């Protein structure tokens, strides 16, 4: 139950949200509970299981606080348990502790110094086509685009992780000609032809680039390879799936051009592409946020929904109490102190 | 029905055998039919669905004529049809036309110049553990080892294909360390580490070797490759399946040593190995066979059960009316002329 007492305590609220099961696709109940406790002073709109709640205080600037409501599938790690300073359970780290901080502030902070758009959304852990924030950005961009800065409460272990890297996935294919392996010279071995692809990836030197004081470390990797017909057949196809994680100073197009240059001479199909997000730390709300937390930012190296804000022209950063290394793991947990500490930081930023 | 008239005509007998369905594992009926028509002058023994029928004429030399009774699965290509000189159907080429020649001679040739051991066996088209000839060679080798030469009536399109190449299959593995692909430098990419394996295979120069006038062409090939965990994970394992087809002047051990030398530095597991068979064309029955056919031999480049005779110390060759390129194909067929022509050659050899 999301009682007044629970809403007043981000730790109790984290636990209450964790204990409402909300594996992606099953967010109706948690969205209902969130919607019914949001104060009427906010302008509340619901789209499926995504909820937008906006202060309307006439402040010169507006910021976004966003968190997703869903989790990856349970794995004998639900409901939550608490052991000293540790709260265990699916979603504790990714990211109900962060989402709890946003909901706690939405309910308990009537007068933030900037207008705030709170976004609670569904289907972050599954296919991008279902992502509630993506759908909202497509269907009602005006609910987001009047903000000048976004904080996504994804797990960062209480650090500021600014921007995010882009990601590009391509299939590099080689083709050949089948033949019986006892008469291999009648065929052309497509797996052998993939040798230079692997060699170029092995020899690739990754770029390090510093943007707004954040160091982004790129990576170009084969993540899957497959080829072969049968144990006695010269294979006529080999496919290498390559993932390029690129710094946000490259556009998606630049990233594609770069991979095409590295793998020049091979047939490439782009299967997936998402832009990075620049840190945007020169914006005033970002500077205020860094002042509130009192420590330097670092680059977010994974891809997060911060990039969705970036494509709307809204710089953003990741900041939350969870530990990103525990996300999606069976032993997912969060430090209770970290939840309190992060809640204090966000409130200090919004009220200083 | 295997009537006297049918048994007297290798073409009619081929068709009758094709029309007894005998996909591997289902050879009981065809074995029953074969067993009941074998003449009583032969010493007949049956082991499961494998039949051995031996002349006991006291000749100084003994030869083997062997054919398997099973086929690969039907593929809308059964029962047989005839169109002019072509008989279509599953098993026409591989190898009921050859098996029919052996059965035809067993029934119609009472006085061959060498004693003959006829072998009709099951499960050639499936796992080696089930192979009727292999089982016979293990359990009753004395029924085979008194022969000095073997003719296996596998499809060769009426040519003499002597000996056979050996085959070795190894898995070459690389290992690494998983990491999120957004932080790839924390992992070790096992797919990238496979680059030198593919490169060495690509650069490999195949050996050609001539033995008893037959040219054997070796081949060392990747036949399968797999690796990868997920689209965003640095892979911790890559496996390349390598098939070495080697000339019969190498032992299995030599072949393994050679592959270990080529792929030095990589973890290798042998998953499958079968020796080659030397042509053995200096044996008197082999010379007589070549004289009967009147054309030069060539090397058998695939692996056949001739190698099972070779491991018993019996040289052998492949000779049959079927077309090896049609084996296991939906449009499998045999030339009717070729059946007659090959039957004449084998009879000439046995009676000259």
What do these coordinates show?
With 352 residues, chain A is of the alpha+beta class. Chain A has two domains: 4-163 and 277-351, Zn peptidases (Aminopeptidase), CATH 3.40.630; 166-274, Alpha-Beta Plaits (2-Layer Sandwich). The first copy, chain A, has eleven helices and 19 strands. Chain A has an eight-stranded mixed sheet, sandwiched between helices. In chain A, strand 11 and strand 12 (214-217) form a beta hairpin. In chain A, helix 4 (92-108) packs parallel to helix 11 (336-351) and helix 9 (284-293) packs across helix 11 (336-351). The radius of gyration of chain A is 23 Å and the shape is elongated. The mean pLDDT of chain A is 95. Strand 13 of chain A pairs antiparallel with strand 13 (219-228) of chain B.
Structural key phrases:
elongated, Alpha-Beta Plaits, 352 residues, 30% helix, 2 domains, alpha+beta, homodimer
